[in-house]
Amino acid sequence: METVGEHLKRVRKTCGYSIDDVARVTRINLRYLEAIENDDFSRLPEDIFILGFLRSYARFLGINEQEIISRFKEKGGSETHGVDLQGPEEGTRVKENGLPDFIKNIKIILPVGLGLISLLFVLIIFSGNRENYTVQSSNSIQDNGVEKNMIEPEEKQEIKNEVKNSLKQNEAAKKALEPVLIKIFAKDLTWVQVRIDEKEVKEALMKPGEVVSWNAEGKITMILGNAGGVNVEVNGKAQEPVGKSGEVVRDIAITSAGVSR
User: Fold this and answer.
1) Global pTM exceeds 0.85
2) Where does the pLDDT of residue 51 fall: very low under 50, low under 70, confident under 90, or very high at 90 and above?
3) Residues near 247 by Cβ (< 8 Å), separated by ≥ 6?
């Protein structure tokens, strides 16, 4: 398995970035970035800066921050550098500021009491409005003995249009949540990363002729290091290219409806 530095360096080069590009955007000192890519963490100023630098570097490349931290931990980073990656031990409780018991109770009871009062106030207002509405609706509006419809034809048409639009939006949302299968065919050397259903992150460095595929329940978000170097299929249907050769394209949304940027 690659070390943290090897992985970051490989992804950076695949995306076409120089180490100077990383330093300029993240504002991390160039010699610290070189130390990270060489896994020489002893050159960093203090242990606590390691996590911050790794997260900033990962965000710049558009890769999963937690995966980089996990790689660092698996390689013994937390033991070597004394960085606390776990947070407080389970069962550890933060002590309160020595407030008297009756003040602590007030802090709990007061919000609950205010919430009950607000709820009662809303119920009273709602009940009054409902009664007025019922009386108004039960009495037909008449003009010279002729009953008139309370809803004008224009208002009826607006309501119908709103219902139609709502149904269309529901259908589009339902379609977007249908299962999706993508296949990526590499024409040139290309780095690709996908986030499946906003959860699992996968990546691959593809050589010409290679094919990868991923499934999702509703949505896949993709980054391509060489957008013009691949062909993409969604549920068996070929898609239009999302970029030019050598172009890095991020935030490519893929659903059963197709590809969008």
Assistant:
1) no
2) confident
3) 226, 227, 228
